[in-house]
Specification:
There is one protein chain. This protein is globular. It is built from 23 helices and no strands. With 494 residues, it is mainly alpha-helical. It is 78% helix and 0% strand.
Length: 494
């Protein structure tokens, strides 16, 4: 293990490797401070479950527009550098809100101001996530491609380790420290991240446009995507041939399309290279995403979120107010969730790679529905009648739910990687992740609306059983749309 880290130090440099580990650890450790946010909304602001879920849904919206950050850093360098300045800006945005909330009781205890600061903080975290992913991709591509898997492993390990530490320490911190101290304590990590940004060197792009090194003909991209669609859907070769003929016809039109981005303005001078880069990036991104081979699978993953109301905040209120579960115990349950997530990832990679994604996703939805029934057992108090304590029920559900949900997230990652055409991998993958995040946000809004309609509030959980029952039924809706997933797609890239 020590020798492995030494090799990575030699390949990428100590400062860069340290920055990667620190950022991913901080992303995982966010559970430490967001547990405190949940209690701040519930205990100090006295918000209802639906209002609390609405605030957090708004605050997490910046994670749904990640491609914008990628396009900004790709197309608009700051003083000739595309990554470190944006990473520094992102770190400042993720640091200052925690300092302000830790020092100002008024802003901490006012709903609108708190929501704005939390949104700014998520904006910084999401931007940092995009930029560090781009830096990793560039380091692997231009320096030590043979260490690609090792660097990704370090990233995932750092994220998981941060999540475990944040979940374990967050609950205990709430039992022993005021919430403002927790905000200030967490700000130490973004502060270290800000200092570390100054240790990483980045060469100047010297006025090179984004598209100069990676631009590809738009029709070539379309041809590749159509080939992928033929491969996944198992169409007959005759249909594939007809589509390729259409692609060849489009090739003749392509030069005109490219000239559109390089056309001079009314004064006869060429357009700004960064403006050209922005137009090219936006155009290629839109053209790639509108292809059915990409649009249909992403539509399914979006539907899988928005059709199922998210009642996690309501269950948090129920567990803390009705069941009287301590914050330290809920943190321990989250640790089991992280461990289950890692086990789920290993299980998928070991046993399910060759299984069709449609089958995996179908059984995953069924598994999620069964685990949601476990919440109904908890709310109906049937577990007590069976002699099973509330803590055991919550631990069992938390441990299994994250592992089973990983069986849905892994196909999402794999299919996203297979569908990304060359040249826009980073931005298009960020778009895929944003679709997933946006679906989760909309699902949270739906859950907040359902809780409001059923009059589920703090101290009044009479209709919670009905709400969870509706959630169980909705879990089967995405199964109806599984035809959107390529029929022959598996977890092995071709």
């Amino acid at each position: 293990m020590i020798g492995w880290f030494k090799q990575l130090h030699t390949a990428f440099g100590v400062s860069f490797l340290w920055l990667v580990c620190l950022i991913y650890f901080t992303q995982g450790f966010r559970s430490f401070v967001w547990t405190a946010v949940s209690y701040q909304l519930k205990d100090n602001l006295k918000l209802s479950p639906s209002a609390s879920q609405f605030v957090t849904s708004i605050a997490f919206f910046p994670w749904s527009i990640k491609p914008l950050y990628g396009i900004l850093s790709d197309c608009f360098p700051i003083r000739g550098r595309k990554r470190v300045p944006y990473l520094t800006l992102a770190t400042l945005l993720s640091l200052l809100p925690w300092l302000i909330l830790g020092l100002s009781a008024f802003l901490r205890n006012t709903r609108i101001e708190l929501m704005i600061l939390l949104t700014v903080q998520n904006l910084g975290s999401a931007m940092a996530d995009v930029v560090i992913d781009a830096m990793i991709a560039e380091a692997v591509r231009f320096e030590r491609a043979s260490f690609a898997g090792d660097l990704q492993s370090v990233s995932w390990l750092s994220l998981a380790f941060g999540g475990i530490c944040g979940s374990l320490l967050g609950g205990h911190a709430l039992d022993n420290l005021p919430i403002d101290r927790i905000f200030l304590l967490f700000s130490v990590l973004p502060a270290l991240q800000l200092f570390s940004c100054g240790l990483v060197e980045e060469g100047s792009v010297q006025g090179k446009a984004f598209s100069e090194g990676s631009t590809f003909n738009g029709s070539d991209m379309t041809s590749r995507i159509i080939d992928e669609e033929d491969k996944f859907s198992g169409e007959k070769s005759k249909i594939s041939t007809l589509r390729r003929k259409k692609s060849q016809k489009n090739t003749k039109i392509a030069p005109t399309t490219e000239n559109k981005f390089q056309a001079p303005n009314k004064n006869g001078s060429p357009l700004s290279p960064w403006y050209q880069s922005l137009k090219m990036a936006t155009y290629t991104l839109f053209r790639a995403f509108r292809q059915p081979a990409i649009l249909r699978p992403m539509a399914w993953f979006f539907l899988a979120h928005v059709t199922v109301p998210n009642l996690s905040t309501v269950m948090f209120y129920y567990q803390t107010e009705f069941l009287k579960l301590e914050a330290s115990f809920l943190g321990t349950a989250r640790v089991l969730g992280w461990l289950s997530l890692m086990i789920g990832t290993l299980t998928y990679n070991r046993f399910l790679k060759k299984t069709r994604l449609r089958h995996i996703l179908m059984f995953t939805q069924v598994g999620v529905a069964l685990l949601t029934v476990l919440d109904m057992v908890l709310v109906s108090r049937a577990n007590v009648l069976l002699g099973i304590s509330d803590k055991v029920t919550v631990l069992f559900g938390s441990a299994l739910s994250d592992g089973i949900n990983q069986f849905k997230f892994m196909p999402f990652l794999i299919l996203s990687g297979q569908l990304c055409p060359p040249g826009v991998e980073g931005t298009l993958f960020a778009l895929f992740m944003s679709i997933n995040n946006l679906g989760s946000t909309v699902g949270s809004f739906v859950g907040a609306g359902l809780a409001s309609v059923l009059n589920i509030s703090s101290g009044s959980f009479d209709n919670l059983f009905l709400g969870i029952g509706i959630q169980v039924l909705c879990t089967f809706i995405p199964v109806v749309f599984l035809f959107l997933i390529p029929k022959e797609a598996t977890g092995i890239s071709a």
